[in-house]
């Protein structure tokens, strides 16, 4: 049901990546949203100040689930079933926002995570369904910017505030603080081989490299994906530039990518990774990697787009598998 992580390479560039895991076919694609757009959201109309690019779909209006804006603020929405609590109405002094409109509102109005900490005090997220699914989506959100500041918004009550995310990883339910506490269960795991002691005078033969991670959970539940992503992010070799960073992020997401058929829902449908998204926060570039084509497909947020374009632009994805033959 989705995993997200932030990453800083050895050059100091920052990234936000995610898997989009869902059983219902969402049909998302890269979309550019220009500056100064009036969006007729499902809970109320709001205006954006800043341009951004991200994964979304045009239903009654453009809905985004992740992306990056012109200041390098990145955002991603992940499922938060059983914990998200929304209000039925908003006070007169607060802007009413539907859960599925939060990403577009944030990317369109905040310059940084620090900026967003103040802005969320002036909105109220309401219990309003999204037409594509016919239900109110239980969501929480991760935000990060080029300073490395990373925080999570969890709608567990009417009081909205950002929670610092010290590990830069988010999955699904339970809350972030529960996941952070759960990490202590696996705090002795390490990348190096763990030497074995003798037993009753018998020297146990080593099982070789990898014994330091014995006990690392390998299933697809949210707690296991969170722990696995933190472990792999912590021990992965630092990448030096953007191409190698994107490759590293692909490998890190491989650890939580769900193939079709291995995680079944109650109705028999398969919850699987429909795409993986990568936001280069410093360079303002967004990449999508659909399930059926593992070639990264990117859109750079250019000054021309920001200054001269006034209409949203959709970029259809290439779903053809790319195979290179060497003979």
UniProtKB/TrEMBL annotation:
Read off the Gene3D superfamilies from this record. Penicillin V Acylase, Chain A
Q: Which domain of life is it from?
A: Bacteria
Organism (species): Levilactobacillus brevis (strain ATCC 367 / BCRC 12310 / CIP 105137 / JCM 1170 / LMG 11437 / NCIMB 947 / NCTC 947)
Q: Which molecular function term from Gene Ontology is one that the record holds?
A: penicillin amidase activity
Keyword annotations for this protein? Answer: Hydrolase
Q: What is this protein called?
A: Penicillin V acylase. Cysteine peptidase. MEROPS family C59
Location of the Choloylglycine hydrolase/NAAA C-terminal domain = 2-308
Read off the SUPFAM superfamilies from this record: N-terminal nucleophile aminohydrolases (Ntn hydrolases)
Give the family per the record: Belongs to the peptidase C59 family.
The Enzyme Commission number assigned here is 3.5.1.11
What top-tier enzyme class does this entry carry? hydrolase
- Name the Pfam families on file: CBAH
TM ranges are none
